[in-house]
């Protein structure tokens, strides 16, 4: 996507976070939301991270979806340097399965909010869908696409069947 029309940044602390964060990108692609995806490590490239956050508003970003694992400082540090809404996605970690990441992101101090989502792929997708809903407040066509998406989910759930009781699994 051309950087001049990018509305949403999807950032992660490492390329290994892509397995999780690609689910946010897929939602933005599905809805036609102009976005960018990049690695911006809080610990290995803090100057780049601060520059990204400080330029976000001037570049026209409406939201930043930030995925991080382990100590998971990226979402909070971005939020500390911009007023653009930051949505945090805890990336599953090797030893604590992302619970460490969740606690790190959700426990922001009063005054510097980060909207925090579930650990892993569901959190990345839901963070993106939340951004879609925010943008849909100002875009009737996008609102219609979101309503259609929700209707498709409802239809799929209604079409689900269960195996007969006592059936072997």
UniProtKB/TrEMBL annotation:
What domain of life does the native source organism fall in?
Bacteria
EC number, as in UniProt: 5.4.99.18
UniProt KW Transmembrane helix keyword:
yes
Keyword Methyltransferase set for record: no
Top-level EC class as recorded in UniProt? isomerase
Q: Which residues bind substrate?
A: 14, 17, 44
Catalysis: reaction(s) = 5-carboxyamino-1-(5-phospho-D-ribosyl)imidazole + H(+) = 5-amino-1-(5-phospho-D-ribosyl)imidazole-4-carboxylate
NCBIfam families referenced in this protein's UniProt entry, alphabetically:
purE
Protein name (Swiss-Prot/TrEMBL)? N5-carboxyaminoimidazole ribonucleotide mutase
Q: Which organism is it from?
A: Tepidimonas sediminis
């Amino acid at each position: 996507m051309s950087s001049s029309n990018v509305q949403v940044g999807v950032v992660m602390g490492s390329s290994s976070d892509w397995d999780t964060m690609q689910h946010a990108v897929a939602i933005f692609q599905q809805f036609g939301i102009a976005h960018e995806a990049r690695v911006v490590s809080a610990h290995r490239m803090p100057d780049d991270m601060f520059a990204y956050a400080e330029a976000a508003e001037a570049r026209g970003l409406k939201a930043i979806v930030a995925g991080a694992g382990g100590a998971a400082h990226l979402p909070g540090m971005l939020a500390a340097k911009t007023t653009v809404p930051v949505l945090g996605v805890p990336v599953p970690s090797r030893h604590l399965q992302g619970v460490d990441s969740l606690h790190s992101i959700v426990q922001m101090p009063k005054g510097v909010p980060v909207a925090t989502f579930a650990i892993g792929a569901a959190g990345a997708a839901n963070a993106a869908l939340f951004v879609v809903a925010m943008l849909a407040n100002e875009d009737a066509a996008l609102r219609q696409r979101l309503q259609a998406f929700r209707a498709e989910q409802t239809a799929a759930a209604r079409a689900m069947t269960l195996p007969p009781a006592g059936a072997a699994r």
